[in-house]
């Protein structure tokens, strides 16, 4: 009776498993999932753009797409507080949201996660690999700084963190302002550390929540294979959607803070 309600399930490992190698480069199951999600996003964009071009009169599909886009833009606009910034960053944030929504949820499809090659799991949720979440978070913060430089200048951007000029101006005004400018210089250096901390906190938050959900589902499937895991699968799906929105919201707030006009 026990074997009827259970099935063998290996616990999800923190490190992704290499499925095969191309030369000296190991292709892991999380990389396979990332490639599949990227391919699905490209297909979705091509299909949506083609469908919208063919429609001479706006139909239900176009209304749905426009509603989703306007809702997402309103969401980002509420975070940034500046419609100019929203219009500038929305293509990037919108693409990020679509990618994360698929990456966090598409492996809920029954049977997809059980596909194997040479005894190894082919697909593993991309965001359960810390390397992937750290890469995404770092890329987003690099874009934040690139947009900031494009808004102003490279020297002005460097001056936000390395405030040597302020030290010179401070000592010209007197000893007191000079000492305060040195403190301000150290605060600028701490801001550099905080930028690295942002990347780490973003990636850990997404990785921790998605990995915990997948691990919990794996444990419950190992105990009961019928009915009981369903609520946990639904919870994992809901958590994936929420974490994608949270990641997009935090990234939007970083853009809003960096690009907000003085």
TrEMBL record:
Q: Which GO terms describe its molecular function?
A: proton-transporting ATP synthase activity, rotational mechanism
Query: Which controlled-vocabulary keywords does the entry list?
Result: ATP synthesis, Cell membrane, CF(0), Hydrogen ion transport, Ion transport, Membrane, Transmembrane, Transmembrane helix, Transport
Q: What GO cellular component entries does it have?
A: plasma membrane; proton-transporting ATP synthase complex
List the InterPro entries.
Answer: ATP_syn_F0_a_bact/chloroplast, ATP_synth_F0_asu, ATP_synth_F0_asu_AS, F0_ATP_A_sf
Do you know which CDD domains this protein is assigned to?
Answer: ATP-synt_Fo_a_6 (cd00310)
Give a yes or no for keyword Cell membrane in this entry: yes
- The region annotated as signal peptide is none
Task: Report the locations given in the UniProt record.
Answer: Cell membrane; Membrane
GO terms of biological process kind: proton motive force-driven plasma membrane ATP synthesis
Ranges that cross the membrane: 30-49, 89-109, 130-155, 175-194, 206-227, 233-257
Q: Does the keyword Ribosomal protein apply?
A: no
* One Pfam family here: ATP-synt_A
- Indicate how the chain sits in the lipid bilayer: Multi-pass membrane protein
What family does this chain come from, according to its entry?
Belongs to the ATPase A chain family.
Matching entries from HAMAP family are given as: ATP_synth_a_bact (MF_01393)
The record describes the protein's role as: Key component of the proton channel; it plays a direct role in the translocation of protons across the membrane.
What is this protein's record name?
Answer: ATP synthase subunit a
């Amino acid at each position: 009776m026990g074997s009827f309600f259970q099935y063998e399930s290996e616990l999800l490992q923190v490190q992704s498993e290499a499925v095969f190698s191309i030369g000296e480069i190991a292709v892991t199951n999380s990389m396979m999932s990332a490639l599949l999600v990227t391919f699905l996003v490209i297909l979705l964009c091509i299909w949506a753009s083609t469908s919208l071009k063919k429609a001479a009169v706006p139909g239900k599909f176009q209304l749905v797409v426009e509603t989703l886009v306007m809702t997402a833009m309103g969401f980002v606009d509420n975070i940034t507080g500046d419609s100019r910034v929203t219009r500038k960053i929305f293509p990037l944030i919108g693409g990020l949201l679509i990618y994360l929504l698929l990456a966090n949820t598409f492996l809920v499809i029954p049977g997809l996660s059980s596909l194997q090659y040479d005894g190894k799991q082919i697909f593993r949720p991309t965001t359960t690999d810390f390397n992937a979440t750290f890469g995404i978070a770092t890329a987003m913060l690099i874009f934040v700084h690139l947009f900031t430089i494009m808004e102003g200048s490279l020297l002005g951007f460097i001056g936000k963190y390395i405030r040597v000029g302020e030290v010179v101006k401070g000592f010209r005004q007197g000893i007191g302002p000079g000492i305060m400018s040195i403190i301000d210089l150290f605060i600028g250096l701490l801001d550099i550390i905080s930028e690295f901390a942002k990347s780490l906190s973003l990636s850990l938050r997404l990785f921790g929540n998605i990995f915990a959900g997948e691990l919990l589902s794996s444990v419950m499937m190992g105990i009961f294979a019928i009915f009981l895991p369903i609520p946990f699968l639904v919870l994992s799906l809901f958590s994936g959607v929420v974490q994608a929105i949270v990641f997009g919201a935090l990234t939007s707030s970083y853009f809003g803070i960096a690009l907000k006009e003085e």
